[in-house]
Amino acid sequence: MKLFADTALLEQILEHNTDDITGFTTNPSLMRKAGVENYAEYAKKILGHITNKPVSFEVLADELPEMTRQAREIASWGKNVYVKIPVTNTKGESTAPIISELSNEGIKLNVTAIFTLNQTDEVINALNPETPSVISIFAGRIANAGIDPMPIMAEAVEMCKTAQPKAEVLWASAREAFNVKQAEECGCHIITLPPSLIKATKNFGKDLTQFSLETVEMFYQDAMAADFVV
């Protein structure tokens, strides 16, 4: 399973441009949090450093014709660019028509904000099977709704096997490092993690007694550094 880094901070992107990280995802919220002022300029700056790994940039529009125009523009920024298209706009209108149009043009898409198998099926039917694509299902947010995302993710992988051999199912909105294990169990092709969770995966395989001791030491050191008294 591929591991992508989910961040818009250039310093974090450069830090995680290692053999372990095989791609990068961004979104407008991450761009805003990073203090980006010129979207296109900043994206091209990232692409100046990341030339041989997929990087996803999202369209900003809400109307489908403008989404389409922006998608073509974003795709022109680099051969390794995947254009993020939300599965619907803010009005709940399906973007399947423009997904089909763009995918048939050979534009690599990362269809995002997918929550249901019905949405997944609609996207699978819209994509051109000859064009590489990513289907981003927000497993973490599904879990936040009190629903186990694993059956949804596993079924999505099965749905893609024959209909979309070049589509990759991505476990999005991860909430903990253990999601890596869950995504692998479901057969997901990709999981994208923020840097904090990438760091947390370094604990995989650690002795739990030792991990307990390190945690106690952390609490103690922080209490001493803060000069807390009781």
Tell me about the largest β-sheet: 8 strands, parallel, barrel
Put simply, the count of helices is: 11
Whole-angstrom Rg: 19 Å
Strand order of the largest sheet: 1-2-3-4-5-6-7-8
The CATH architecture would be: Alpha-Beta Barrel
Helix-strand makeup class: alpha/beta
Distance between the termini: 49 Å
Strand content: 15-25%
Mean pLDDT: 97
Q: How many structural domains in the coordinates?
A: 1
Count of strand segments:
8
**What is the CATH C-level name?**
Alpha Beta
* CATH homology-level superfamily: Aldolase class I
Order of helices and strands: EHEHHEHEHEHEHHEHEHH
Please sum up the structure shown.
The protein is an alpha/beta fold and 230 residues long. The protein has helices at 10-15, 28-33, 39-49, 64-75, 96-104, 117-126, 139-144, 150-163, 179-186, 195-200, 208-225, and strands spanning 2-6, 23-25, 55-58, 81-86, 109-114, 133-137, 167-171, 190-193.
Structure characterization notes:
There is one protein chain. It contains 11 helices and 8 strands. It is of the alpha/beta class and 230 residues long. An 8-stranded parallel barrel has the order 1-2-3-4-5-6-7-8, surrounded by 5 helices. The chain is globular.
